[in-house]
């Protein structure tokens, strides 16, 4: 009781400047045990503190109060409300001093929100939490995948997509990275931005790993399907930069998908549909049936696209026959859809049902093109700067310097080579 | 020191002399005060870098020819200054004079030069010492302080004259006017030096940068002038300034003489060329990025690759 009172007064007193905050942090760390043992601590004691000014102390008290085991629905929703309010109003500087506690608090928050089966409540607070914990926009935090998971459950893909627009350059935990890319890929699929989904899933599949993990496996299955939808081709071999573990094992676990991919390459709709029906139970288990259906419908598009490379003009009936569509009407609908999406350029002559395929009319002469080019160049300049910074930090890495020194000594011919010491003592 | 000389001599200075003096000064300055990058190891005590000797001077001789009333200063060479006697090293001077006489038979020692912001009393000492070689030597003074606002050259030519000051006749320095005289070869070398940027010596890069900076400043000036005109016209339209018809006529004729730059074809061509240039710079950026990426990948491979006994292993890592 009295120690809690003391603690509260010290929190209120010491939350002003950064020097006081570090002192407060030490006090709180020491007092954590006594807080947990204190059974009289109630949620009402939190009312004495202001979350935006006394964020650090509030964080510790909240953590002690809410990390307990299962609680009743009313209490859970009350706690959820409290935490949500805290997250939106807390001070980012103070939070970063105790980022692990904050992260565990948010994870607990996410679990409760999922228990309450109301993930929408958690999306906005977690979004702001991610922004507050992030030291810089290039660093991945443990909260990113949690936020994305909530967005997926709540089906609000746009909110999740806003997080994905940052370029991530530094990662703390590989698991966070896998989850982030996997959930991010799923969100992009939901938004139908298949290019970005492909990039993210590709990152998971080619990420360095000692042994195959479940996340990579699921990501690989989705990766296969998204390549089919987006680029219309499938190759069984993984890109060369994938880890050896991935290259050896991923294929053995995802046989139905590789079969679908191989069949897709042939280009026959009926065979593809047969394969899909045969493995539909597998697809159902992985929740990928919707994606597989999209892949099947994209086969039509791919076939029509190949037609544009062979013919200049075709009649709608011919298109229907070659692509194995039912009749000319469906062919017309498909071609129209593709023209609207910008995948092909064509003119449909309705009088005699002829389609004339055209070249890409983009002349790159407009001022909009200038803006596109300008933004692309700026992005490349930024990327180049990041790479140079990475290069410099690698050059100072003792591991690298040790190996380089060893290499140089091997080719030491004359005395005028000054020998680089093998070990660098820093 | 009287502001102008009354000897009636006309002085002609060649740019070679000025380049020599400034080069001499810069060389000695860098030798005395090495650039700070070499002191990064921390072995050199900080005192060397801290006390930058601001007030040292370099000395030398100027040579040339005198025809009638025209004194033409062609060349110069360096001299050693003896701080103990506070005068120039005589033996060295004579040796150098002999050598230069062999190469340039027509040139004689006309005077001496030094650096500084203004002429000092002690300089008269050196000046008098040279009087036995040349009855009326000249003193060329270069001010090494860089003053961006100053438009003229920081070079002054002094003569010595006898003036009666406070009843005592003494020789003092008087300012003499001079003109710059160039030979074709000198003009080329001066042009070349003028384009060199002090930071790095890469010729292609600095030429491009110099060219672009020139264009940029020209466009900036054009922009500011058009803006002035525009504001003037707007003020006239509003009635703040009385209408000046002749100016309006001049403005109208200027506008009419502009090339017809608003046609559709011009816009097309212009945008296409612009986009082409952008594409080229994009390609250059991508190449640079790729080479950076390549270096990073090499370093990562060297640092983190597992060493294989059999050699010839191609597995990168993990």
TrEMBL record, chain B:
One of its GO terms (molecular function) is metallopeptidase activity. Pfam families: JAB, MitMem_reg. Residues 11-164 form the MPN domain. InterPro entries: EIF3F/CSN6-like_C, JAMM/MPN+_dom, MPN, MPN_CSN6. PROSITE patterns: MPN. It is found in: Cytoplasm; Nucleus. GO terms for cellular component: COP9 signalosome; cytoplasm. GO terms for biological process: COP9 signalosome assembly; protein deneddylation; red, far-red light phototransduction. Keywords: Cytoplasm, Nucleus, Phytochrome signaling pathway, Signalosome. Component of the COP9 signalosome complex (CSN), a complex involved in various cellular and developmental processes such as photomorphogenesis and auxin and jasmonate responses. The CSN complex is an essential regulator of the ubiquitin (Ubl) conjugation pathway by mediating the deneddylation of the cullin subunits of SCF-type E3 ligase complexes, leading to decrease the Ubl ligase activity of SCF. It is involved in repression of photomorphogenesis in darkness by regulating the activity of COP1-containing Ubl ligase complexes. Belongs to the peptidase M67A family. CSN6 subfamily. PANTHER family: COP9 SIGNALOSOME COMPLEX SUBUNIT 6B (PTHR10540:SF18), EUKARYOTIC TRANSLATION INITIATION FACTOR 3 SUBUNIT F-RELATED (PTHR10540). This is COP9 signalosome complex subunit 6. It comes from Brassica oleracea var. oleracea.
């Amino acid at each position: 009781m009295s120690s809690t009172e003391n603690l509260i007064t010290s929190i209120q007193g010491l939350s002003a400047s950064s020097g006081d905050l570090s002192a407060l942090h030490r006090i709180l760390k020491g007092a954590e045990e006594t807080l947990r043992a204190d059974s009289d601590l109630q949620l009402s004691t939190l009312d004495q503190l202001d979350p935006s000014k006394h964020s650090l102390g509030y964080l510790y008290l909240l953590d002690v109060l809410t990390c307990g085991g299962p609680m009743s629905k009313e209490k859970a929703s009350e706690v959820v409300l409290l935490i949500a309010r805290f997250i939106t109003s807390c001070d980012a500087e103070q939070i970063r001093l105790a980022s692990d506690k904050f992260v565990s608090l948010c994870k607990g928050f996410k679990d409760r929100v999922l228990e309450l089966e109301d993930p929408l409540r958690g999306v906005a607070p977690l979004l702001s939490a991610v922004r507050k914990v992030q030291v810089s926009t290039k660093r991945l935090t443990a909260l990113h995948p949690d936020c994305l998971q909530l967005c997926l459950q709540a089906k609000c893909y746009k909110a999740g997509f806003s997080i994905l627009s940052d370029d991530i350059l530094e990662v703390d935990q590989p698991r966070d990275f896998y989850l982030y890319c996997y959930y991010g890929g799923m969100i992009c699929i939901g938004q139908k931005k298949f290019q970005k989904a492909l990039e993210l899933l590709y990152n998971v599949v080619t990420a360095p790993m000692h042994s195959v993990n479940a996340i990579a496996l699921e990501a690989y299955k989705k990766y296969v399907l998204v390549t089919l939808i987006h680029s219309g081709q499938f190759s069984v071999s993984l890109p060369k930069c994938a880890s050896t573990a991935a290259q050896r094992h991923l294929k053995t676990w995802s046989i139905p998908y590789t079969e679908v991919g191989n069949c897709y390459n042939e280009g026959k709709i009926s065979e593809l549909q047969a394969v899909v029906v045969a493995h539909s139970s597998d697809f159902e288990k992985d929740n990928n049936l919707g994606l597989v259906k999209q892949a099947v419908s994209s086969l039509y598009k791919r076939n029509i696209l190949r037609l544009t490379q062979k013919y200049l003009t075709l009649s709608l009936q011919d298109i229907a026959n070659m692509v194995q569509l039912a009749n000319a009407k469906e062919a017309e609908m498909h071609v129209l859809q593709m023209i609207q999406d910008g995948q092909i350029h064509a003119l449909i002559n309705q009088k005699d049902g002829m389609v004339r395929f055209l070249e890409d009319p983009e002349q790159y002469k407009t001022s909009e093109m200038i803006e596109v080019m300008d933004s692309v160049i700026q992005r490349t300049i930024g990327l180049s700067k990041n790479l140079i910074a990475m290069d410099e930090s690698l050059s100072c890495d003792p591991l690298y310097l040790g190996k380089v020194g060893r290499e140089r000594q091997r080719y030491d011919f004359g005395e005028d080579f000054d020998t680089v010491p093998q070990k660098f003592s820093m | 020191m009287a502001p102008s000389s009354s000897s009636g001599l006309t002085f002609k200075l060649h740019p070679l002399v000025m380049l020599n003096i400034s080069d001499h000064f810069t060389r000695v300055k860098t030798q005395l005060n090495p650039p700070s990058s070499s002191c990064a190891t921390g072995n050199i005590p900080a005192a060397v870098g801290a006390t930058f000797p601001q007030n040292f001077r370099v000395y030398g001789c100027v040579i040339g020819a005198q025809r009638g009333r025209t004194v033409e200063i062609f060349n110069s060479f360096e001299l050693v200054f003896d701080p103990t006697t506070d005068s120039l090293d005589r033996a060295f001077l004579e040796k150098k004079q002999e050598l230069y006489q062999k190469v340039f038979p027509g040139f004689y020692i006309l005077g001496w030069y030094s650096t500084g912001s203004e002429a000092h009393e002690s300089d008269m000492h050196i000046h008098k010492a040279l009087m036995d070689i040349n009855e009326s030597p000249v003193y060329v003074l270069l001010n090494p302080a860089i003053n961006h606002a100053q438009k003229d050259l920081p070079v002054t030519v002094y003569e010595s004259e006898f003036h009666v000051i406070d009843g005592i006749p003494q020789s003092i320095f008087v300012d003499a006017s001079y003109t710059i005289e160039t030979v074709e070869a000198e003009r080329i070398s001066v042009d070349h030096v003028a384009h060199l940027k002090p930071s790095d010596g890469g010729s292609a890069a600095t030429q491009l940068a110099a060219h672009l900076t020139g264009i940029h400043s020209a466009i900036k000036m054009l922009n500011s002038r058009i803006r002035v005109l525009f504001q003037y016209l707007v003020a006239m339209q509003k009635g703040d300034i009385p209408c000046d018809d002749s100016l309006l006529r001049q403005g109208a004729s200027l506008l009419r003489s502009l090339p017809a730059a608003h046609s559709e074809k011009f816009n097309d061509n212009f945008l296409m060329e612009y986009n082409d240039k952008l594409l080229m710079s994009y390609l250059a950026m991508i190449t640079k990025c790729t080479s950076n990426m390549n270096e990073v990948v090499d370093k990562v491979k060297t640092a983190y690759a597992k060493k294989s006994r059999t050699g010839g292993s191609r597995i990168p890592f993990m």
